[in-house]
Amino acid sequence: DPGEHESFMHKEILEQPASAGRVLRGRLNGRFATGHLGGLNMDARELRAIRRVKILGCGSAYYVGEMGATLIEELARIPADAEAASEFRYRNPIIEPDTLYVAVSQSGETIDTLLAVQEVRRKGGYVIGLVNVVGSAIAREADGGIYLHAGPEVAVASTKALTNMFLGFAMLALQLGRVRDLSIADGRRLIAGLESLPGKIEEVLATEERLVAVAERLAAAESLFFVGRVRGFPVAREGAQKFKEISYRHAEAYQTSELKHGPLALISPDVPTIAIVPLDELVERNVAALHEIAARGGPLVVVTHEEVDLQGLEAERIVVPRAERELDPILLTIPLQLLAYHAAKQLGHDIDKPRNLAKSVTVE
Ligand code: BG6
Fold this sequence. Notes:
Elements: H1 8-14, H2 16-24, E1 28-29, E2 34-35, H3 44-48, E3 52-57, H4 60-76, E4 80-84, H5 85-88, E5 99-105, H6 111-122, E6 126-131, H7 137-141, E7 144-147, H8 160-178, H9 184-205, H10 208-218, E8 223-228, H11 232-247, E9 250-255, E10 273-277, H12 283-295, E11 300-304, E12 316-319, H13 328-346
Parallel strand pairs: 3-4, 3-5, 5-6, 6-7, 8-9, 8-10, 10-11, 11-12
Antiparallel strand pairs: 1-2
Helix pairs in contact: 2-8, 2-9, 4-8, 4-11, 8-9, 9-13, 10-13, 11-13
The structure holds 6-O-phosphono-beta-D-glucopyranose.
């Protein structure tokens, strides 16, 4: 029973400022401007020996893994990528000794992720877990890890656990960066950015009423696109995932840059696009692509920063506060949780237990 809240998902969305604070606590080292993740069971020499990072997870944990890969490449300059854990073991994956494997899972019990961990370990690889549930199967099987401290998450659609996965990756990337070439100034900048996130998440949540109206309009569409680029693309993937899981509308994520290579043919007044447009090096190209959508009559919702000039674009504008640019994805994700939530509510669905889905899939 979610108490005074209308659902667990809503309760868990609103808990994020507090739960985000918990994953950071005691894990930032101001003096050396680095992360302090004791549970990795790796010393500085071992961290420096890592040549590649492979992230494994399912569903939302896979998409946040893509955000994590970008953080690691940006801050530590180590090649990193995320893969669906459900596919991994079927590719006879090549396990390398200088690769760090990262299994991401709220429940710690998802069978596909657990079997991926076992495949890595059987072949002699080193795996850490980013896991919420203490003592869960993945936490027990991994060589080390970062507990997420999000608290119990009941709604099938992950919100507060996902946010803490992102923060876990940010601290890991910071620590990997600081044993390499990330400067102390950048380390300090990121620590300040991380510490400011709970307050900024609170600011996004305060805009909920405005998002209700936007969500109710989106709920009327049978099909939607979520688009973004580079840091914004996994945000779009996660936004589409949330929307389809609980609203049962067809929501498809695309790289904004790929629209012209296919899906632009589908744009019409009946197909809204939710675009992720942070103030970054791609902003002008992003805005130009959105004008292509508007020219074909496609309704637009743009999740963006105050400073972004949309060049007269006709669009519903949702503004989030800026963090450090590497940390922006998580603040861009929060309004998408609320859009999915309020669309599903408008449609009268069982939000906490969407049809055909389980909170954790523990059988193959
Ligand atoms: C799914 C849920 O099947 O499992 C998703 O429907 C979730 O919402 C995914 O993201 C992964 O779960 P976990 O517990 O491994 O993070």
